[in-house]
């Protein structure tokens, strides 16, 4: 397992294309989300030059996980598309609060992994730990996510300090919620 972090310009073009195809396979083909696609890749308006990514690869170089990080001081998914998930509270807008989105850890090369088990795998936990650490390096003190309700299980089991920003809602037929994840600073 190897995690790489960077922007679309610092990741190789080939790796970034594989991330787009991986996201297509996870979010559109497996989970059935209705999202924007381009040439078999799932990318949207939040995949900008300043967007940061954490990519997990197996020992053979296959993408088996990804995460997207955006500062909430710029347009981001929750703020632009799902503000109702904040349950009436203002959407975050700060360089110290980053959004974690398009988080997935499905190993399509493993026969034992399903989309539903992604939230409890070793890859998922490490990818989330590395995403939090990378966000902290950028100055993040908290993360906010728009997530399927199943992510709560990963967060609870793995000991992450997280809590709901609002109650879950059914949107597009899927139960999702906004969740705060606290970024613990080194030595804190």
What do we call the CATH homologous superfamily?
Answer: Gcn5-related N-acetyltransferase (GNAT)
Helical run tally: 4
Number of domains: 1
User: Kindly state the mean pLDDT as a whole number?
Assistant: 90
Percent of residues in helices comes to: 25-40%
Tell me which CATH architecture applies here. 3-Layer(aba) Sandwich
Instruction: Characterize the biggest β-sheet.
Output: 8 strands, mixed
**SS elements, strand count:** 10
Catalytic activity: a fatty acyl-[ACP] + S-adenosyl-L-methionine = an N-acyl-L-homoserine lactone + S-methyl-5'-thioadenosine + holo-[ACP] + H(+)
Protein name: Acyl-homoserine-lactone synthase
InterPro entries: Acyl_CoA_acyltransferase (IPR016181), Autoind_synthase (IPR001690)
Enzyme class: transferase
Question: Could you outline the blueprint of secondary structure elements for this entry?
Answer:
Layout: E1 2-7, H1 13-30, E2 37-38, E3 41-42, E4 52-57, E5 63-71, H2 77-81, E6 97-104, H3 122-137, E7 142-148, H4 151-158, E8 162-164, E9 169-171, E10 174-182
Parallel strand pairs: 6-7
Antiparallel strand pairs: 1-4, 2-3, 4-5, 5-6, 7-10, 8-10, 9-10
């Amino acid at each position: 397992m190897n995690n790489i972090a960077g922007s679309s310009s610092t990741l190789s073009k080939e790796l970034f294309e594989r991330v787009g195809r991986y996201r297509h396979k996870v979010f559109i083909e497996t989970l059935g989300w209705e999202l924007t696609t381009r040439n078999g890749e799932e990318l949207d308006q939040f995949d900008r030059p300043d967007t940061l990514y954490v990519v997990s690869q197996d020992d053979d170089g296959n993408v088996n996980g990804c995460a997207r990080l955006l500062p909430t001081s710029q347009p981001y998914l929750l703020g632009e598309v799902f503000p109702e998930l904040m349950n009436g509270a203002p959407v975050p807008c700060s360089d110290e609060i980053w959004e974690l989105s398009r988080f997935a850890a499905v190993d399509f090369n493993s026969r034992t992994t399903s989309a539903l088990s992604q939230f409890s795998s070793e890859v998922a936990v490490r990818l989330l730990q590395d995403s939090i650490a990378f966000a902290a390096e950028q100055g993040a003190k908290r993360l906010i996510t728009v997530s399927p309700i199943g992510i709560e299980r990963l967060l609870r089991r793995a000991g992450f300090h997280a809590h709901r920003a609002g109650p879950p809602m059914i949107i597009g037929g899927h139960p999702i919620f906004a969740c705060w994840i606290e970024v613990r600073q080194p030595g804190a």
